Amino acid sequence: MPMSYEEYLDEVTTLITEKYGTTDEVAIRQVMDAQEAGFFIEHDDDERLRTLERAHQDAATIGKPRKPARSRKPS
User: Fold this and answer.
1) SS3 per-residue string spanning 36-58
2) Fewer CB within 10 Å, N or C, the chain?
């Protein structure tokens, strides 16, 4: 059974904290930033996208720590 949109966002937030060891505040900010950027628009429109499996995928997409960009040293 698909989750409500709010339940889905809560699940993604929880998974980010569990998988990547971030604080609740950081995970909430990541989900809110993704929401503001339009990442979850399709999830709001299509309840079939609000599954636990998809929540794991989305948590990895928006919550996975990124490697810092390599800086170029002047020659």
Assistant:
1) HCCCCHHHHHCHHHCCHHHHHHH
2) C
Gap between the Cα atoms of 31 and 40, Å rounded: 9
Instruction: Tell me how crowded residue 47 is: count the other CB atoms within 10 A of its CB.
Output: 14
CA distance 74 to 44: 47
Name the token pair of 35: 């929401």
pTM for the full predicted model = 0.84
The residue extents of the domains of the chain are 5-63
Question: Mean pLDDT of successive 10-residue segments in the chain (75 residues)?
Answer: 92 96 95 96 93 96 73 56
In angstroms, rounded to a whole number, what is the distance separating the alpha carbons of residues 72 and 75? 9
- Alpha-carbon distance of 70 to 4, in angstroms, equals 40
